[in-house]
Write a structure and sequence with these properties.
The chain is of the alpha/beta class. The longest helix has 24 residues.
Length: 235
C-alpha cells in the first residue's frame, strides 16, 4: 500500500519537484499552498509523513507544527526551510519536528530521510501491535503509541528525535551500540561534518532521563559507544 505524504509548501516549483519525485518513488503525495489549509489537511486526513515548509503564508510552519503536536498527532514531520542557523534548527526540533532539511537540498538525501522516518514509524508500529504499548528499562517507561515517557512516575518531555533515539537504546538495552550503528538506525544516513550529533543527543537525554536520579541508565564506553542498562542494586 502506498504511503501518503502531505507537502505543505508555497513555492510552486519546489512543490512540483517534490510531487514528481515522490510519485516516482511510489508514494502518494498531496499538496497544500499555505499553513492554514495545510493544518486542516494534516488533521482531517490520515498521513504517513508531512513535508512542512517554515516560511508559509496564512500560518507559519512552526505554528502549524505546534498545533499538529498539540492535537496529539505523532505523524513524522520533516521541516523544509532556507533558515539554517543553529537556533532555527533547535526551535524546529523543540516544536516536535522529526527532522530538518535546509534549502537548497539534494533530493536523494531528502528521500533517504523520508525512507528512514517511515521505516522507524513502521518498526515502532509493529512493536506496539505485537507487544504491550509500553517498553521498560528499570523504572523508565516509554509508551510507543502516545510517545509518553516516565521515570519513577515522573513525566519526561522528549522531542521526536530524542524519543526515537531513547527507544532504540532501550530496545537494545544491555547491548553496546556504536555511534555508527546509532546514526544508521536512528538517523538513517551519514552526517558529513556533524559526526558528534549522537553525542549531542545523548547529552540531551542524560539531562532529561538521568539528571536528578542517583542511578544512571545511560552509559558511555569511551572509544566504543553507548549502552543503557538497569540500575545495579549493589552499586
Amino acid at each position: 500500500m502506498k504511503e501518503h505524504i502531505l507537502i505543505i509548501e508555497d513555492e510552486d516549483k519546489i512543490a512540483r519537484v517534490l510531487q514528481l519525485e515522490l510519485e516516482h518513488e511510489g508514494y502518494s503525495p498531496a499538496r497544500s499552498k499555505d499553513g492554514r489549509e495545510g493544518l486542516d489537511m494534516a488533521l482531517s486526513r490520515s498521513w504517513d509523513l508531512i513535508l512542512l515548509d517554515i516560511m508559509l503564508p496564512e500560518l507559519n510552519g512552526l505554528e502549524v507544527l505546534r498545533r499538529i503536536r498539540q492535537a496529539g498527532s505523532q505523524i513524522p514531520v520533516i521541516l523544509l526551510t532556507a533558515r539554517d542557523t543553529v537556533p532555527d534548527r533547535v526551535s524546529g526540533l523543540d516544536q516536535g519536528a522529526n527532522d530538518y532539511v535546509s534549502k537548497p537540498f539534494a533530493i536523494e538525501e531528502l528521500l533517504a530521510r523520508i525512507r528512514n522516518l517511515l521505516r522507524m514509524a513502521a518498526i515502532q508500529g509493529e512493536a506496539a501491535a505485537q507487544a504491550d504499548d509500553e517498553i521498560h528499562l528499570d523504572a523508565l517507561t516509554m509508551n510507543i503509541r502516545t510517545r509518553q515517557v516516565k521515570r519513577d512516575g515522573r513525566p519526561i518531555e522528549l522531542t521526536p528525535k530524542e524519543f526515537d533515539l531513547m527507544y532504540y537504546l532501550v530496545a537494545h538495552q544491555g547491548e553496546v551500540l556504536s555511534r555508527e550503528q546509532i546514526l544508521s538506525e536512528v538517523w538513517g544516513y551519514d552526517f558529513i561534518g556533524d559526526t558528534n550529533v549522537v553525542d549531542v543527543y545523548i547529552r540531551y537525554l542524560r539531562q532529561k532521563i538521568d539528571q536528578g536520579f542517583p542511578c544512571k541508565l545511560i552509559h558511555t564506553l569511551r572509544g566504543v559507544g553507548y549502552l543503557v542498562k538497569d540500575c545495579d542494586p549493589n552499586s
